[in-house]
Specification:
Belongs to the RRF family. GO terms for molecular function: ribosomal large subunit binding. One of its GO terms (biological process) is translational termination. Keywords: Coiled coil, Cytoplasm, Protein biosynthesis. By secondary structure, the protein is of the alpha+beta class. The chain folds into two domains: 100 residues, Topoisomerase I, Chain A, domain 4 (Orthogonal Bundle); 68 residues, Gyrase A, domain 2 (2-Layer Sandwich), CATH 3.30.1360. The chain has four helices and six strands, in the order αββββαββαα. β3 and β4 form a beta hairpin. It is elongated and about 70 Å long. It starts with a helix and ends with a helix.
Length: 184
Amino acid sequence: MHIVLNQKKPAFDATIEYLHKELGALRTGRATPALVEDISVNAYDATMEIKGLASIQTQDSKTLVIDPWDKGLIKNIEKGIRDAGVGLSPVVDGTVIRIMMPPMTEDNRKSMVKKMKEYLEDARIRNRQVREEAREQVLKMEKEKEISEDDKFKLFDEIDKMTKEYNDSVESIGKNKEEEIMTI
């Protein structure tokens, strides 16, 4: 594999990793810690994410349990979740917060699929940006006589092939997530 491809592979990988993170936070009807772990909460005169303040577990497929390490932050965490606009209703149950996942309606599911498709398109755009950066790097190398014109076209083909592989991966991830969202 050419050095240009080796340099751009981490950028492609980062796009896929970011896509997984974004899709993990989409509601599918099942409880998952990814739904709340990145929600910001005011704590200790700073803004922190819930994952840095509490353990988050799934009690069952419809219930999340948030157990703050500092029990004095329980009201702050509850308020943070309510204010986040994610459509979840936290309930303080002693020293933990319980979140019951509301059932997904058909409209909710379609809305989630639409949001998911936006994330997929963002990932494809990022992949194209990485491809264009790689192509510019190859053109610069040709201009500086580091590679021949034939090598340039071979590299363009390899870059396009790599971009297609990553875009196919994005499509595959999207199909799986859509199936997960639409499953009742």
